[in-house]
């Protein structure tokens, strides 16, 4: 990437960041599950491009294989792609009601702590918020936004596949923040690598569980209500 | 400044023979598990014999480290360096882990055969137990956050997969909830770790302890780490996932999970707090307060439980609460108080691990031979199944904290620490918790000694299963009698200035 002029690289970074945010949003708000899964695969490909852009070609390769290919495969497996028992095409479950303190307060606190800490990391005493935001860079900001989106999706959605998607998006947001606050350190890459492997295994386990639960008694969510019981 | 200082000392590197032993303990169980996937053991003796080399290696390691003092090792992967550290605490936890795992594995052989579990999922029990063992071992000896992360995730994923093996809808739903919570918990942990890395530029515990200064970023990072770990350790009020998971899981899996897996998160939490937040007294009191509520609420839930497994699972929530008292008693207190609390905490952890595993096994034997899982349905079992009830009783002695068990010594130490530190609140918690524990455990005997019962037919179980449970329960009792030796090993303790 060194051959690119500075301005072009910066513009590319901003564009990547915006596309990432867009895809995360598309993946989390879409009630049509197949389209949401496709959005997630696009999101993972964009993540791979981002790692390339951040000069971590190894991570880019791992993200492409584990994040886009294998996680995508497990998501479509959960949908029952090509199998006899397919999940309904559309998620018709109502969202979880925003009543419980536990379900909303904890994620909100979580997000504010993450945001505050990443701001504090670049913020020497006395800098203004706007300057700190500028130092943080577009990818970290989008990472924080994606963390927020992922938390929202995880708390709000009840369909298990959508919660799994939200977990994956949330994880990617954290990887972005991690890469930005820790810089190009080898430890940061090792952490992200471990995180990617964990996310893949988690998705595989989750996908096979969703599939089995659906085949066993048509359950699509954990809580009470349609298709699920506590 | 603390025990981790040994990490700089070249002379205390692991010798090649010790390296080999450590590798054997880390990866041996996983290898054995993979072999057992294709050749599942059918007799308890086979399992015990196959596990013997690992046990022997553990014993040798414990003996060597106990004599020669702490050792450390570093593992270079390219530019990346992983640090491992073996002190008295690590080797005692290793010994505890391998003992519980071996007993559970031997018990599991009999359990699979008697419960007539489907052979395919039952075979997967072994590699997953092996992976769990590797993860736990890694956590005990890790001295950097990356190794801890790898160990934590290896352990966590194996634990979730083990919970899913029964394959019934209830088990799967409980497992799904556990998976989602565990994954989000580890993301919170990862975020905390990345903030620490961003702020201080390193992941090794010794280095972090040296450079990290208290400040907003460290506080937030520790808060995020703690939130993730508290969720994984099912500390009140994040305990809701625990009981359903145990209700549906196989007995040897529950035993290992309650004894070791949730403790691992607690151990990491305590280590990190002592290193990174040595002055945060208010937060430590908050954790102690959560622990107290866990003791009371877990006790009440166990008291009201209808199912046998449910009772034991809620009792775990309560007993974990005692461990949380370590935070206010260790952080910001005088040397004498902290010394007492340090010993009491680890003794309680070990005693509870042994007793809880034994109790789960006893309950498993009862459920398996009667075919019933409710407390009220146990009427008449005292005549027909004396051995599981004896084991349950012995384990109950430790959990209630009656002499001469490890539970008694541990609570005595914690009580003394609370009195010396003039933290009167915890004394009330300890007393109330003990009474609650006695109350819910005696319910079990009230039902089982009910003689006016229909004559039920019981399934005969292999003697070895009850023997394993008895062994663990007796170990918990004996630990109280010979507590001097492990407590002596614990003494040059890490983490505090």
UniProtKB/TrEMBL annotation, chain A:
One of its GO terms (cellular component) is membrane. It comes from the Bacteria. The chain crosses the membrane at residues 6-29, 36-54, 60-83, 104-122, 134-155, 164-182, 188-210. Its main location: membrane. Keywords: Membrane, Transmembrane, Transmembrane helix. Pfam families: Oxidored_q2. It is a multi-pass membrane protein. It is found in: Membrane. This is Uncharacterized protein.
UniProtKB/TrEMBL annotation, chain B:
The chain crosses the membrane at residues 20-39, 51-69, 89-111, 123-142, 148-166, 178-200, 220-243, 255-276, 282-304, 311-331, 346-368, 389-412, 424-442, 463-483. One of its GO terms (molecular function) is lyase activity. InterPro entries: CPA3_Na-H_Antiporter_D, ND/Mrp_TM. It is found in: Cell membrane; Membrane. It holds the Pfam family Proton_antipo_M. It is a multi-pass membrane protein. GO terms for cellular component: plasma membrane. The keyword Membrane applies. Belongs to the CPA3 antiporters (TC 2.A.63) subunit D family. This is Formate hydrogenlyase subunit 3/Multisubunit Na+/H+ antiporter, MnhD subunit.
């Amino acid at each position: 990437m060194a051959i690119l002029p500075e301005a072009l690289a910066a513009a590319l970074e901003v564009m990547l960041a915006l596309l990432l945010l867009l895809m995360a949003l598309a993946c989390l708000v879409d009630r049509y599950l197949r389209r949401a899964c496709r959005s997630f695969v696009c999101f993972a490909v964009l993540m791979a491009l981002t790692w390339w852009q951040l000069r971590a070609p190894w991570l880019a390769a791992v993200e492409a294989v584990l994040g886009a290919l294998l996680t995508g495969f497990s998501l479509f497996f959960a949908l029952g792609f090509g199998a006899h028992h397919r999940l309904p095409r559309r998620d018709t479950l109502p969202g979880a009601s925003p009543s419980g303190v536990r379900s909303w307060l904890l994620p909100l606190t979580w997000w504010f702590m993450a945001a505050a800490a990443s701001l504090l990391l670049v913020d020497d005493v006395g800098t203004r918020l706007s300057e700190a935001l500028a130092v943080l860079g577009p990818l970290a900001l989008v990472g924080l936004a994606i963390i927020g989106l992922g938390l929202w999706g995880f708390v709000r959605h009840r369909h298990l596949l959508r919660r799994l998607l939200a977990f994956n998006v949330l994880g990617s947001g954290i990887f972005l923040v991690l890469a930005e606050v820790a810089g190009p350190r080898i430890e940061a890459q090792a952490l992200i690598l471990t995180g990617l492997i964990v996310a893949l295994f988690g998705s595989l386990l989750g996908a096979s569980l969703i599939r089995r639960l659906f085949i066993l008694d048509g359950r699509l969510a954990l809580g009470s209500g349609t298709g699920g019981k506590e | 400044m603390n025990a981790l200082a040994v990490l700089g000392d070249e002379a205390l590197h692991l010798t090649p023979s010790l390296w080999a032993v450590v590798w054997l303990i880390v990866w041996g169980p996983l290898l054995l598990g993979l072999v057992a996937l294709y050749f599942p053991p059918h007799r308890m003796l086979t399992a015990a014999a196959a596990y013997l080399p690992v046990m022997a290696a553990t014993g040798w390691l414990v003996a060597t480290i106990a004599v020669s003092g702490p050792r450390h090792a570093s593992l270079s992967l390219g530019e990346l360096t992983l640090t491992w550290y073996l002190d008295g605490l690590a080797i005692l936890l290793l010994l505890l882990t391998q003992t519980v795992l071996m007993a559970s594995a031997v018990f599991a052989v009999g359990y699979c055969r008697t419960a007539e579990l489907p052979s395919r999922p039952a075979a997967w029990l072994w590699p997953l137990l092996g992976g769990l063992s590797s993860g736990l071992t890694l956590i005990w000896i890790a001295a950097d956050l990356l190794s801890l992360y790898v160990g934590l995730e290896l352990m966590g994923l194996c634990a979730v997969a083990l919970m899913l093996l029964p394959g019934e809808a209830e088990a799967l739903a409980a497992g799904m909830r556990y998976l989602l919570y565990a994954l989000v918990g580890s993301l919170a942990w990862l975020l905390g770790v990345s903030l620490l890395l961003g702020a201080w530029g390193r992941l090794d515990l010794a280095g972090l302890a040296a450079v990290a200064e208290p400040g907003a970023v460290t506080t937030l990072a520790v808060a995020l780490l703690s939130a993730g770990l508290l969720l994984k350790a099912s500390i009140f009020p994040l305990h809701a996932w625990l009981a359903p998971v145990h209700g549906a899981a196989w007995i040897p899996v529950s035993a290992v999970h309650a004894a070791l897996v949730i403790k691992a998160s607690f151990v990491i939490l305590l280590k990190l707090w002592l290193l990174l937040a040595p002055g945060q007294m208010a937060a430590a009191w908050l954790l102690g307060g959560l622990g107290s509520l866990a003791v009371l609420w877990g006790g009440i839930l166990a008291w009201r439980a209808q199912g046998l497994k449910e009772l034991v699972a809620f009792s775990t929530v309560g007993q974990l609460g005692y461990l949380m008292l370590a935070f206010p008693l260790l952080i910001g207190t005088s040397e004498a108080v902290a010394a007492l609390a340090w010993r009491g905490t680890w003794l309680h952890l070990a005693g509870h691990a042994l007793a809880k595993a034994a109790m789960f096994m006893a309950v498993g034997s009862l459920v398996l031979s009667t075919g019933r899982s409710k407390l009220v349905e146990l009427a008449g079992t005292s005549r027909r199944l004396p051995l599981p009830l004896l084991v349950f009783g012995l384990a109950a002695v430790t959990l209630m904290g009656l002499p001469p068990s490890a539970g008694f010594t541990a609570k005595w130490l914690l009580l003394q620490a609370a009195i010396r530190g003039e933290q009167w609140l915890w004394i009330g918690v300890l007393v109330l918790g003990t009474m609650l524990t006695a109350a819910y455990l005696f319910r079990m005997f009230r039902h089982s000694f009910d003689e006016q019962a229909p004559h039920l037919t019981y399934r005969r179980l292999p003697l070895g299963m009850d023997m394993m449970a008895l062994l663990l329960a007796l170990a918990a009792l004996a630990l109280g009698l010979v507590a001097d030796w492990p407590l002596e090993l614990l003494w040059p303790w890490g983490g505090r200035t």
